[in-house]
Design goal:
heterodimer; A: mainly alpha; 8 helices; B: alpha/beta; seven-stranded mixed β-sheet; six-stranded mixed β-sheet; globular
Chain lengths: ~230, ~260
Amino acid sequence: MSALRRNATIALAIARKDALAELRGRQAVGSTIFFAALVLLLFGFALGPDSRRLAEAAPGLLWLAIVFGGLLTVARLHQLEADDGALEQLALYPVDRRAVYAGKALAGAGAMLLLGGLLLPVVAILYGVPLGAAWAPLAVTVVLGSVGFAAVGTAYAGLTVRMRAREVMLPLLMLPIVAPLLLAAVKATVAAVAGDPFGELGAWLQLLAGFDIVMLIAGAATYGFLLED
Amino acid sequence: MPQTTIYVAPRLGGAHGSPPPAVDTDGLARLFGRSAALAGVSLRIEAGRTVALLGPNGAGKTTLLRILATAIRPSFGGLFIDGVDALRHPEIIRTRVAYLSHVSGMYDDLTASENLRFAATMLGWSGAEVATVAERAIAEVGLAPVADDRVGSFSAGMRKRLALARLLVARPSLVLLDEPHAALDEDGMTLVDRLLGLWHEFGITVVVASHQADRVVRAADATVRLHGGLVAEVSGSGVRAGALAPVIPSHATPLGTIR
């Protein structure tokens, strides 16, 4: 078996394992989605009943909810490994660490996509934003945003999973790094919803794609060191 | 119980065709903060030997096994396994070492079968082999009736059996066992004893730490007794100990010394 094929097999096995564990731990998945939806609802209360104001804020609030829900998701995907010594066992398997990173990031991106996909209609309903016409650019934005967030989150969750204060350290370390992603995703969402009147959507999507590529390369290069003692 | 299948790593040739020592440590020490869990262990274990690692709590048995497994790095000292520098090439060592730790390393939300298939994939099996070796190993440790149950519902003893099954899916030249009899019923302990015999028969080196001294000494070629992070005594054949003096800095305190 070639090294590339072997790494793809390893990455898919890890992603499948994480997806199975996530789907079977329904309470965790359900809680995250419920939490993110609740964040959207509370933002709505905080901003008041002004429908125009809500619609204007909707892209930013959507991505904040995705980021908050995503923090829980990437942390939990590594918490699965911390239970009963699975992380140490994972580190002892004779596999390329880049494949382990790819598998964890793939699972994270999948979970983020699910979260983003479910929150879009919630935003449309709660804030009265017509998303139907913009579904294609919105889908690309959510895909690129999810991949970027998972790329960063997987590396940082690997870094913090052994820390005692990991619940605090993960957002503390990660949020500054995902700030450019948040900015680009919000701007792309605003442009997509408005029908891209200034032709800036492509540039924001390119920025998101660039962020994803850089973070995936950086994550794959460093994750192996994070798994070591 | 079905016939047990043992997979073995290919031998690595040493100088003049003689096999290198399975384990060769030079002053291994490990500090946790200012405490030394290992204070300088120099051991040479010939290939194919079964070695019982004995000693009181805090003697350094688990730390030594974790270093041999490449789960943690030593603070000082050198380590060669099958002639390969384990500190420079842990990725090679991990293809040759199977390690049973205190914890199972299994995923609660996956079934026993799914856990073992995952392990088999990670250990290099591919395609149809994955299911075959996983199911065979599960049957060999007596878990076939609960193969499709989630591990979260397993007792400590069943988890230990499943972790033993993972060893059977590996292709090791060195097996490291940390308290393999713990949490097991009499049948389970007999299974461990039988596996110890099979690994010995197949020429696999085994280092086993246990408080079931009678059981492991019976199966072992040699006994190494640790105390305070140092080798206190070596007996039997196939094992040599180097200098017994600590190599750690003077500010560190052996973990085994209770103050």
